[in-house]
Amino acid sequence: MTTHKHRRTEKNLCFKQYYKWILCFILTLYFFASFFVDHDQDHRSSTSISKPLLTNPKPKLFASRAMFESKIHDHKLGFTSQQPNIKTDVFNNLKIYVYDLPSKFNKDWLANDRCTNHLFAAEVALHKAFLSLEGDVRTEDPYEADFFFVPVYVSCNFSTINGFPAIGHARSLINDAIKLVSTQYPFWNRTSGSDHVFTATHDFGSCFHTMEDRAIADGVPIFLRNSIILQTFGVTFNHPCQEVENVVIPPYISPESLHKTQKNIPVTKERDIWVFFRGKMELHPKNISGRFYSK
């Protein structure tokens, strides 16, 4: 009996890691694809952020589709102890639902043009990329979703003093969004948010602080520790700001910048530098803290 439970636990863990791998692949694919889409293109009317919350819900489910269909996928994919075999048809079955939150969580921040093109604008680009997806991946029926994307912009609160993005409001804003989706939708509570996806594109990921010592001291908020974080912060050693399921994504680069680079440096050109850097090098730090952000 104990052996059976152990095997079942291993299978469930393998399945969870497998779907996390798929999510990482899908997000990276569409994130890069979004670079080449004109970011000034109007949203389709069917994807308006101001649509009303879920009405006339179906009977409550107690696990996401990814969980309660585990037995169906298990025999098709042939999981291994290392990495599962990937089959094309699985990607066709993956579904992501994008919450339509009140505008104070996202759309209102776009009043500042910098929100869509600054260093931390990946949170906006990902949201737009998800909204532009056809029904093959994004679903408008949350009951068939494997993952739930919660679009909250926390990096667009620019200081009127120095122009830097301030994120002191990030924790409370995301917590308010979680309170909303957990009370007006059934999906957060059935998995404690483990199939919900957030973005944290500022310094030190979901610790939401610009200073590392403060970020470490505060850690990842309790209300996010069971979810999946798309973050630009990533290190190869243990770090308190990575003590959460996370997918490391590249920082934002505008489509115009990419087009200019491609024009000046053809894709087929032989390269001897394989490093990507996005940020600011400061030999003599001038930021408000006087600390080094790069080495």
TrEMBL record:
Gene Ontology molecular function: any one: glycosyltransferase activity
Native source species: Arabidopsis suecica (Swedish thale-cress)
Which UniProt keywords are listed? Glycoprotein, Glycosyltransferase, Golgi apparatus, Membrane, Signal-anchor, Transferase, Transmembrane, Transmembrane helix
Q: Which family does it belong to?
A: Belongs to the glycosyltransferase 47 family.
Q: Which GO terms describe its cellular component?
A: Golgi membrane
Exostosin GT47 domain boundaries = 93-281
Where in or outside the cell it occurs: the entry states: Golgi apparatus membrane
Q: How does it sit in the membrane?
A: Single-pass type II membrane protein
One GO biological-process annotation of the entry reads: glucuronoxylan biosynthetic process
What the entry lists under PANTHER family is as follows:
EXOSTOSIN HEPARAN SULFATE GLYCOSYLTRANSFERASE -RELATED (PTHR11062), GLUCURONOXYLAN GLUCURONOSYLTRANSFERASE IRX7-RELATED (PTHR11062:SF229)
What's the main place this protein lives?
A: Golgi
Name this protein carries in UniProt? Exostosin-like
